[in-house]
Amino acid sequence: MSNKFKILCLILVIAILLTSIINLNTGFLSLHLQDFFQDSQNSQIAEIRVNRVLVMLLAGISIPTSGFLMQEYFQNPLAGPDILGITSVASLSVAFYIFFSHDILLHEFLQNSFLSLAAIGGSLLLMLVLLSMSNKFQDKSYLIIFGFLVSAFAGAIVSLLQFYAENQSLKNYILWSFGANNMVSRNQIYVLSVLVLLGLFICFKSIKPLIGNSLGNSYAQSLGVNLNQLKIFIIVASSLLSASVTAFLGPILFIGIIVPHFCRLIYNPAKLWQQWILNMFLGMLIMLFFSIIAEKTQIPLNVISSVFGIPVILMMLLKQNKV
Asked: 31: left (phi > 0), else alpha (psi -120 to 50), else beta?
């Protein structure tokens, strides 16, 4: 492990700690240290802010890791959970759940579990379709076009559901789609943490085969890489990580594309283990930074990520065109 990588990690960890502290002190009320550790009149507000920081850390780990896996597997820097339609289909699944389950009374933990299962189920289904289509398309860039078509179709279905939805269901869906990080409860964080840890474990098992896969299918097979197993690992890990965050925070767009891109710029892109670690650290830092902006400006989180991400992706396209 090089000194450059250690210094990068140290800088990112310090920045994460500082932005976490700023997050805890950002809001309408000024809190004291005792509000976070003792019962006081502001303890509930302190708990909301702690939950906000925790969910941003989990989102910062999950979404870039999902994008990193997909970009390395498809060998395409524009591959990501939102560009390929995974986020849109997860949103559609959540929309179906919100609009058709409002009359069903369930415990909060079960509601959170079914919400995440709906998002993961939809994204898994789409990932299976994408991987089957990847065998038919000689040029894998066609998958991006296919992803845009899927996103447009999912958006049309969601609009249709919104048109016929009841007022309360429509309000719940709109609040969810804004990416309201202050509304995530501790029980939801528990469910999200389990899903993220499971996705990270599968990602850990996928890195070594991905290194072989990056050298070509024939070379990977000569190294003993099980390509079918790798495909399944990528499907499950990417879907778990992106859809679980989408279920609780709404569609956080473009983070899964731009964070891996930045990590390849600041460190050797061939070293996948280090790239994965950098993706998680930089992802946490960016999501915490977006959370501060959202609290200061009251702009929805997904709007901030889109405003930040679209120019970066445009610059990536222009750079590739010059090459």
From this structure: beta
